TrEMBL record, chain A:
It is found in: Cell membrane. It is a multi-pass membrane protein. It comes from the Bacteria. Keywords: Cell membrane, Membrane, Oxidoreductase, Transmembrane, Transmembrane helix. Belongs to the cytochrome c oxidase bacterial subunit 4 family. Its EC number is 1.10.3.-. This is Quinol oxidase subunit 4. NCBIfam families: QoxD.
TrEMBL record, chain B:
PROSITE patterns: COX3 (PS50253). The chain crosses the membrane at residues 27-46, 66-85, 97-116, 136-160, 180-200. It comes from Terribacillus saccharophilus. GO terms for molecular function: cytochrome-c oxidase activity; oxidoreductase activity. This is Quinol oxidase subunit 3. One of its GO terms (biological process) is aerobic electron transport chain. It is an enzyme of class 1 (oxidoreductase).
């Protein structure tokens, strides 16, 4: 196939993405199991690591931003994550903040 | 070829035909729906996390070593799947098949450890009906594991087609779409690993 001339066949992008992913996994593991910080602090830190690693997968491995439709795809996916955050935070807040009690004690 | 007028020879093979390009964009829309599906399961898991009833808590059941093996298997399979797409863009069909087979073996290893984990829990008396916490654990993890299993079957069928027809704009877009699915399952696992396993093992 006459594609544009390949500059270097070695998959550097994938290897760098893989190594960063492993590092983030190990650091999150160490933070959760080998520190005595409060669980809220640990949760915030390892959640940040998870979001970085997910973004890495989406951009470096899934080529989310490339191609003619890259903007559309990125917008769609970000909106998906926005919906996910609303569902998760909303459900958690509703189910744990005491609204349920009022209904059930009638 | 019917779509010759739409072919863009400067794009990677999977984007060359209009049908292939639209299928890829359409599949991303499906992944948006998958994000919503998994978010409902995560929401239920978080809401019911503390409802352990008479059953054990996460920290009594989870084994850090097992979790790390499963995470590394799936993470490495996502990497080898990416290498398969890299080979596809170099137009090397043998490379695509070889890396995809390695991906499938790692994925099967992941499913094997997950089944071992579930069977181990059931032997310890922790089942779907033990408590709300464990119901959501099995449903969330089971839904993810089912997705991985379906992915393995799908990619096997694709590889048979690829071996028969070679790399064309049509097969290339199918392989690319299956790689999106596979990477997406690793993205979901990152959050399961973080929110379910690691937070479950924090005292």
């Amino acid at each position: 196939m006459s594609q544009q001339t390949k500059k270097g066949h070695f998959p550097w992008k994938h290897i760098i993405g893989f190594l960063i992913s492993i590092a983030l996994t190990l650091v999150a593991f160490a933070t959760a199991l080998w520190t005595d910080w409060s669980s809220t602090t640990i949760f915030i830190i390892i959640l940040i690591f998870a979001v970085i690693q997910a973004a890495l997968q989406l951009v470096m491995f899934m080529h989310m931003t490339e191609g003619e439709d890259g903007g559309l795809i990125s917008g769609n996916t970000l909106f998906g994550f926005f919906i996910a955050i609303v569902i998760i935070v909303g459900t958690y807040w509703l189910m744990t903040s005491g609204h349920m009690h009022m209904g059930m004690s009638m | 070829m019917a779509h010759d007028h739409n072919v863009n020879p400067n794009a990677p093979l999977e984007y060359q035909s209009e049908a292939g390009r639209l299928n890829i964009t359409g599949f991303w829309t499906f992944l948006g729906a998958e994000i919503a599906l998994f978010s409902t399961l995560f929401a239920s898991y978080f809401a019911l996390q503390s409802r352990v009833g008479d059953g054990p808590t996460s920290i009594e059941m989870f084994e850090a070593g097992l979790v790390m093996i499963m995470t590394m298997l799936l993470l490495t399979s996502s990497f080898t799947c990416g290498l398969a797409i890299h080979e596809m863009r170099a137009n090397n069909v043998k490379g695509v098949i070889a890396w995809m087979i390695i991906t499938l073996i790692l994925g099967a290893g992941f499913i094997g450890y997950e089944l071992y984990e579930f069977v181990h829990y059931v032997h310890e008396g922790v089942t779907l009906g033990t408590s709300a916490h464990w119901s959501m654990f099995f449903i969330l993890l089971g839904t993810h594991g089912l997705h991985v299993s379906i992915g393995i079957g799908w990619i096997i069928l694709l590889l048979i087609q690829l071996a028969r027809r070679g790399l064309t704009p049509k097969t290339a877009s199918k392989v690319f779409i299956s790689s999106l699915y596979w990477h997406f399952l690793d993205v979901v696992w990152i959050f399961i690993f973080t929110c379910v396993y690691l937070m479950g093992m924090v005292n």
